[in-house]
Design a protein that fits this description.
By secondary structure, this protein is an alpha+beta fold. It is built from twelve helices and 20 strands. Strands 6, 9, 10, 11, 12 and 13 form a six-stranded antiparallel beta sheet that branches. Strand 10 and strand 11 form a beta hairpin. 20% of the residues are buried.
């Protein structure tokens, strides 16, 4: 009976790796992980390596797993790998094993499904903008003389966002239903580049009672002039809006006095400064530079990690507390 041999492309397909990876594992020092061709000495004259099915099956456990990696699990539910790692802390079962030469986290598909059933909202998170549909938080919609606002946006996965329109004080309907009933967007925005300067100015607005509130109009201008990439919004007892250092072009005391007064009234961190071409929203932050030995810096990084903060966040809170105690 004639033996069946696989070439490099077929072997790569069986092991779910690239052809380039096949050449790497053919030359590994560890025989347990090395893929051994039947024609190592003559492969150039044979037009490439050849492998037996038995050899492929022997090596397969090191390169093919039935369980999901963190990246595969994240793709399955439309979230990031970081989000999956956060779920580990919340009870999602996982195990760690060596895979393709490095330690890797694995999740059984059944465990991921059970977790999703028991935590139906775990994959959802608040968002302020959907690039695909161009819908944004507090976007106005009109039907005849009636005005409504997008007041809830939750991302289900990379391709789907659950949007609800508030059409009255106690009536919220899905956006799809609203569109079928005849509601149409009354404003639109375009994507803008993210501003790279550090930090945000912080505003805290009261939650408006009516959809035509000047508060909504202000946030609408933020979206139009700055773009969603430069905003962060949280809704609670108040609406907290964080804004990158930027200029609201065309917003002047002579043309928008009420809006500028409201900005000055509700700013909690930062500064509002009129300019010749608009209104500057400044974070009020100023850099401080100092140097430490590398070992000392590592100690600070570890202290920050212990409190689940970045080094910047930990330093800010530590300095603020020290100043308050003086």
């Amino acid at each position: 009976m004639m033996s069946v041999y696989l070439d490099t492309a077929q072997a790569a397909k069986e092991l779910n790796i690239t052809v380039a990876s096949i050449y790497k594992i053919v030359n590994l020092e560890d025989p347990a992980k090395r893929l051994e061709p039947v024609n190592r000495m003559t492969h150039k004259g044979d037009g490439g390596y050849r492998f037996t099915l038995e050899e492929i099956e022997r090596i397969k456990p090191a390169y093919v797993k039935d369980d999901l990696t963190s990246a595969q699990a994240a793709k399955r539910i439309g979230r990031s790998t970081t989000y999956i790692h956060q779920l580990f802390k919340k009870g999602l079962p996982y195990y760690e094993a060596e895979f393709r030469g490095k330690r890797t986290y694995f999740i059984k598909e059944s465990d991921l499904e059970i977790y999703a059933i028991n935590h139906p909202d775990s994959g959802r998170y608040d968002t302020i903008y959907d690039r695909k549909s161009k819908v944004y938080l507090f976007q106005p919609y009109r039907m005849g003389n009636r005005l409504a606002r997008v007041c809830s946006m939750k991302r289900i996965n990379r391709n789907k966002v659950e949007v609800k329109l508030q059409v009255s004080t106690d009536e919220w309907i899905p956006l799809e239903q609203a569109i079928n009933e005849g509601w149409k967007p009354a404003a639109s925005i375009t994507d803008r580049k993210a501003i790279t300067s550090y930090g945000y100015a912080v505003f805290e607005f009261p939650v408006p009672i009516t959809p035509d509130s000047v508060i909504y109009a202000i946030i609408d201008e933020f979206f139009k002039l700055l773009g969603p990439a430069n905003l962060r919004i949280q809704i609670g007892e108040a609406i907290q809006v964080e804004v990158k250092k930027s200029v609201l072009t065309g917003i002047l005391p002579s043309t928008h006095p009420d809006m500028i007064d409201k900005l000055k009234t509700f700013i909690r961190s930062g500064e509002i400064t009129p300019k010749y071409d608009g209104t500057l929203i400044d974070t009020g932050l100023s850099p401080v530079t100092f140097y430490l030995q590398e070992k000392e810096k590592e100690k600070l990084v570890n202290k920050a990690k212990e409190t689940n903060k970045s080094l910047q966040e930990w330093l800010e809170s530590t300095v603020s507390n020290a100043i308050e105690k003086e």
